[in-house]
Amino acid sequence: MNRTPLGRVGQVKQITSLSNPVIKEIRALGLKKNRDRSSSFMTEGLKLVIDALDQGWQIRTLVYAKDAKSNANVENVAARTVAAGGLVLEVPQKVLGAITRRDNPQMVCGVFEQRYTALKDMHPKPGETYIALDRVRDPGNLGTIIRTADAAGASGLVLVGDSTDPFSLETIRATMGSIFSVPVARSDIDGFLKWRDARDALLVGTHLDGAIDYRTIDYAAAPTILLMGNEQAGLPAGLVERCDRLARIPQSGRADSLNLAVATAVMLFEARRHLLEV
Ligand code: SAM
Hints:
It holds the Pfam family MRM3-like_sub_bind. Keywords: Methyltransferase, Transferase. This is RNA methyltransferase. One of its GO terms (biological process) is methylation. This protein is α/β, with parallel strands linked by helices. The chain has 2 domains: 6-113, CATH 3.30.1330.30; 119-276, Alpha/beta knot (3-Layer(aba) Sandwich), CATH 3.40.1280.10. The chain contains 10 helices and 12 strands. It has a 7-stranded parallel sheet with strand order 8-7-6-11-9-12-10. Strands 1-4-3-5-2 form a 5-stranded mixed sheet. The radius of gyration is 21 Å and the shape is elongated. Residues 1-10 have low confidence and may be disordered. Bound molecules: S-adenosylmethionine (SAM).
């Protein structure tokens, strides 16, 4: 007798058709308006689904390929999904491929509730570094920055202004799971500046015309907020004039500027150099 969670009647739905309404809904999460409406998003791969559950993210639906049925980890994740009140779907690999738009899809994907941290709940403390991104546009840049923020031990990220969606499939893929551990807030410029004014933190803007070499700033003196500009336009004057420091990463060669995610990584690891050990 099969005693595994996957064997219990009523807890796993077997779906073979792409025209099934639940499958259609999951596929529709490729569009931002549908992610916004349902406040959900999709993540791919067993490891990332386990990471998300371990970090307390709320799962709504688990989808696994029929071939993965006997995998003990998949069974365990299915049991956790059921315990969390979620739906478990067993599908042929071709359905998973259509959901994830990949020829060689992962054997598992999960639909989770979106989660933002309220900006008012972010309180920079000594030794902490936050990143603020002005109107970030590129999903790959945003995902890479979230992953780098995680690796460098940043405490959170603020999306300022009209930004790309942190819950798009492309961004989620680029975060490699770090979306589940880095708090993300969003704000307009006024809200961001008010938040910053009410906190004892050093606002370090980055700009190609910055007067200060980024390596000369004392990042240990106070919690730091690194403010990075939009990929095309850089930081607007309204933000530049409110920075405590305007830093530049010296360059040689013919490139006008660094890619936003690369510049953020350079800044982050310098700002946290005194805190990071091998
Ligand atoms: N054309 C834009 C400009 O004139 O600012 C270039 C923007 S750059 C691709 C995106 C962001 O990365 C910049 O706004 C800045 O925050 C950061 N950045 C890139 N290279 C930098 C550098 N050498 N020094 C300081 N910040 C840099």
